[in-house]
Amino acid sequence: MCQRLALFISLSGPYSRTPESRLSELIRGGLTTIVGILGTDGVTRSLSSLLQKTKGLERDGLTTWMWTGSYRIPIVTLTGSLQQDLLLIDKVIGAGELALSDHRSSWPSKSDLVQLLSDARVAGMLSGKLGVIHFHLGSAPTKIDLLWQILNETTIPIQHMYLTHMSSRGDDLIEEARKWIKAGGMCDFTADVNIINENATVNTLNKFRAEKLPLKQITVSSDAYGPTSPQYSPQSPASLPRTLHDDDLNDNGDLMD
């Protein structure tokens, strides 16, 4: 009986719950600005708790923001709507990370995304914020196909779509990042994970710099406290400075030059 029950138990669940951020770890990692998200867990983690966390860290001296929503739709909000969150809550800069092409996604339709992007754009206009949807990309072959369709079929500007994990999901998504940047969009790359000798972001930044792509349209984030994989501990804030100061990245001059 015990052996049969073991078939229905995994190492995910409460065991895999990642810890909250710690001020000492953030400072040790050289981070002065952080943006909080719910990520995968929009059920047992709450936006109200996240908002309080951002306020507490701000009092400690950090610059803090947050995304409303989580990986899935309908998105969770603080006030009942994305537009009200953006308009009424200073800390909220947009919605995300909304998962696309990922097994944890709710696989939103094109019309779902158009509605969210339209809401974000209008709320941004009313609040004086840009109004962004932050998309988490997985490794499914659908990649960012829906976003290209929206750009081709609507008048929603590309600036309202901010894509992350674009350097760490394989060559196909890196090629999509290249095209997205050339189209005027913003991409975020995830800092390399030292414990598994990952160097995808450093390599991609070097390639894009050699191709004279505008690096001002690329951000690099630590993905701190997000799990790197079931076998490893959560990503560390220190991964960001370690990536940006990588010798291979700076052989031809500082990245920020």
Automatic annotation (TrEMBL):
What InterPro entries does the entry give?
Answer: Metal_Hydrolase (IPR032466), Metallo-dep_Hydrolases_sf (IPR050378)
Residue ranges that the Swiss-Prot or TrEMBL entry lists as coiled coil: none
Taxonomically, the superkingdom here is Eukaryota
Q: Gene3D superfamilies this protein is in?
A: Metal-dependent hydrolases
Compositional bias ranges of the Polar residues kind: 224-238
Residue stretches of biased makeup (Acidic residues): 248-257
The secretion signal range is none
Residue ranges of the region described as Disordered:
224-257
Question: What PANTHER family is this protein classified in?
Answer: COLLAPSIN RESPONSE MEDIATOR PROTEIN, HYDRANTOINASE/DIHYDROPYRIMIDINASE FAMILY MEMBER
Name the family the entry cites: Belongs to the metallo-dependent hydrolases superfamily. Hydantoinase/dihydropyrimidinase family.
Protein name from the UniProt record: Uncharacterized protein
Q: What organism is recorded for this protein?
A: Rotaria sordida
